[in-house]
Amino acid sequence: MNDTQKMLQAIINGQSTLKQELLSKIGKVDRKVDILGERLEGKIDSLDGKIDGVEKKLTDRLDKIGKQLAYLEDDTPTREEYDKLEERVDKIEQKVISA
Q: What is the spatial distance between Cα 28 and Cα 48, in angstroms, rounded to a whole number?
């Protein structure tokens, strides 16, 4: 082999070695990304469960508040009932005053 062929062979060997090193580093990065992805998926699933729990609690609480409002509304007198009540109070006041 002459000097030119030796230099070309050295360059090719260096590139081949560099390629192998890069491939091994890329493989390591891929494994780390996969591991992080699995961890992230677990955390996302956990977060989804927590969000579902909070949503259920909020829905339950809003349902309770809605029922309380409905009952409160049922207990309040209508405008007509209030007016009749005012008339009854006036009649009772007149009786008390005249007695």
A: 30
Mean pLDDT, the chain, whole residue set: 86
pLDDT band at 98 (very low <50, low <70, confident <90, very high): confident
Residue matched to tokens 């050295």? 10
The CA angle 31-35-39, to the nearest 5 degrees, is 165
Band (36; pLDDT cuts 50, 70, 90): confident
Cβ(85)–Cβ(77) under 8 Å?
yes
CA distance 47 to 31: 24
Instruction: Give CA 42 to chain center in angstroms.
Output: 15
pLDDT score for 80: 83
**Contacts (Cβ under 8 Å, ≥6 apart) of 85:** 77
Residues 6+ apart with CB under 8 A from 96: none
Instruction: Compute CA 30 distance to the chain's CA centroid, rounded to the nearest angstrom.
Output: 29
